[in-house]
Specification:
CATH superfamily: IL-4 antagonist (De novo design) like domain
Strand content: under 5%
Radius of gyration: 15 Å
Order of helices and strands: HHHH
Mean pLDDT: 92
Shape: elongated
Low-confidence stretches: none
Number of helices: 4
Number of strands: 0
Structural class: mainly alpha
Helix content: over 70%
Distance between the termini: 15 Å
Largest sheet: none
Length: about 120
């Protein structure tokens, strides 16, 4: 991995990881809400997942790292589950996405450490 790609991957991975954690936490709150509140919460979750998807596309376009596609697929599957009123099952896909992003972050951190930049 080139230094520039490592820097971008590291920065983007932190944003994406934070977003995935926000969505996961918000999904856990859904069970205690009324139907009307759940509808509003699901709209917020959709907006968050759309923002995360945008950050993933930016990272993919800048780094050409294929693993970002895997992250996007897991996030898309989570969104399908949420849209299908199966929000609790979305957690699995969010966890898979988080695992992929964490792996890329670790790899980029190793490159940056080896080059004395971190």
């Amino acid at each position: 991995m080139k230094t520039s790609a490592a820097i971008i991957t590291f920065a983007q991975s932190e944003k994406v990881k934070s977003g995935i954690i926000w969505v996961t936490q918000t999904l856990e709150l859904l069970t205690g809400l009324s139907l009307a509140e759940q509808y509003g919460a699901e709209r917020i979750i959709k907006m968050l997942t759309d923002m995360i998807s945008h950050e993933i596309r930016v990272a993919k376009n800048l780094t050409k790292e294929a693993l970002w596609d895997d992250v996007a697929k897991h996030l898309d599957m989570a969104q399908v589950m949420i849209n299908s009123q199966m929000a609790p099952e979305a957690g699995f896909h969010l966890t898979q996405a988080l695992t992929q992003v964490t792996s890329m972050a670790q790899r980029s951190m190793t490159v940056l450490k080896d080059e004395g930049l971190l």
